[in-house]
What does this fold into?
Amino acid sequence: MTPRLCHFGRLLLAMVLFTCGLLPSAWAQTCTPAIAAVHAAKELAGGPGRPTQGWEPVTLPDTWTTRWPGYDGAVWYRLNLAQDCAAARADPEPLALMVKSINMAGEVFLNDTLLWRDESLQEPLSRSWNSPRYLILPEAALHAGDNAVWIRIQGRALITPGLGLVMLGAASEMLAFQQRIWWSHRTIYVINLVASLCIAALFFGIWLLYRKQSLYGWFALLNLAWVVFIYNIVATDPRPFGDTVGVVRANTIAFMVFSTSYAIFIFEMVWERRLPRWQERGLQALTLGFSLLVALIPEEHLEAPMHLSGRIHFLVFGMACILPLLHALRSRKRADVFYSLIGLGFVFIAVHDLHAFHLQLPEPLMLTPYANLLTMGVITAVMGSRIAASMRRTERFNVELTAAVTQACRELETTMGKEHQLAL
It folds into this structure.
């Protein structure tokens, strides 16, 4: 073999080796992984570990109780990522994963690399069901061929456990999407919680000063119940309720208390008098009875009473929203029409939000937190104006009483002077 031919052979071999060495990274740079398939399987009974059998294809969002009713424990989700070279970009950027919901606690792996893990994967479980996760996929963990994202979720059958929508794309796009839904999923509810807590404290203080004005007490109670109810949405752990089931019990009771308090409050607000005694006591007894049932019944029997009590009190809330409309049709007063519009708005918003929640849309527009802020602000202003008007009436009465007493003293003084002169 001539030296020139040997030199050419070595050069060709070096070029082949160099090309093979660059091929995986070039593929990773020009081809975008996409979610090709999603499968789920129960965790093996022996302990944490990826199942080797029992995988079933699923569609996200997924609730595993539709396949395995009553199953409490851990489930693995496998998201197969396939290279999509048709989606190549001229200026590639890091890839990111956006996990909309993990119900209730979990951990995420890219192949064998841990990306994220909840603080507690056993009771008391961390609460990630309403916390969108933004996770960058490290290039070092991406293989040249196919990859897989593994998500292990620990959940309870009582709380519709499973995995929400998962999106894969450019880091900047996923971050922008996560920030948008973080506002609608968490920030607006934190604002609601703080505002409602302030309103509850304010009117509870007013009620303590004017105990006969039960309207202020009911308004404080319904705002406090709303705070406990939406705590379920923003809490990242189950404290102070002990565990996941404790939060479910507290959330259900809070909704019942809110519905009853709102019904009694709106009657006093619109009709300007208290409910008939038997009706008010009946509502209170209904709520107290179901609350004790939900609080004390064993977990394995909790689901049916929880749903029944929720539906009954949702009916109570709906009736409290509609009855002011019937009153407004008879009275034709502007204030009554205003209250009836608030009630109809609540009904429309409740139906809209329940529909959007069950559809599991990527970016659902939930109107309840915005409507609650607006409505409670307006009602607070109306009640504040009532308090101010009452104070003005009291001031006018004091002024008129002082003037009347002064006039009476003058007349008495004149009369006594005349009688004294007559006596002399």
In short: Confidence is low (pLDDT under 50) at residues 3-30. The longest helix spans residues 368-423.
